[in-house]
Please model this.
Amino acid sequence: MKASGLYWLADGIACDIVLRDGTDPQIAEADLRALIGSAPIDLVIQAADTRRKKFLIADMDSTMIGQECIDELADVVGLKDKVATITARAMNGEIAFEPALRERVALLKGLPITVVDDVIAKRITLTSGGPELIATMKAKGNYAALVSGGFTVFTSRIAATLGFDENRANILLENDGILTGEVAEPILGKQAKIDALLAIAEKLGISPEDTIAVGDGANDLGMLDIAGSGVALHAKPTVAAQAKMRIDHGDLTALLYIQGYRRTDFIVT
Model:
């Protein structure tokens, strides 16, 4: 592998290595990964002239936030271990997402919807780098959508907190403020995320190639595949193995470095 230059985007954190014309990207990646070895360094190889994107579409659970909301709701009724096991299998692609969601939601029957306020206040944390990612992309005139297989009672608040332009998710059904144990149909899963990316890109008058997508679960793979830059962030093993790009060590600011932004370009909120 031959490089023509190295440029720091953030000293000691992120750099661009410019490959000479004619370099085979696959060979370059193999050489660099051999050089990195087991060091905690992320590597993305891409064309420099198309890496700046106009639209960010992001998963919520274990991506923009550090938790799985349904697991935290289940903890309130003492069923977190059972629900978390189903969640992990669904996110690894071992079982279909839609029936797994129905099964987990059924276990929440009887919970007061007000418990969501307590979960958000006491259990939900934003993923490191998320505020900078959204603020910086918005400051550059780009669009941001939060699209989740979770629930609108969470996405609406997380989206507002971070500054997303819109959010899409599933609707937990309730009766007089009590969860019925059901979710509105049709369920927003893998295909719905693909549809959302395509619909929003069309609304914006841009190509899916102008999109950067980020997620961690099997139901994110479709949107990661059709986005110009599809990033698996601290993803489930099967997802990371299939994604175009993977970030195993860095935080959400890695999505800015991937696009060539320097640390000095970041908007810190």
Notes: The chain is about 40% helix and 20% strand. Residues 190-204 form the longest helix (15 residues). The CA atoms of residues 74 and 80 lie 5 Å apart.
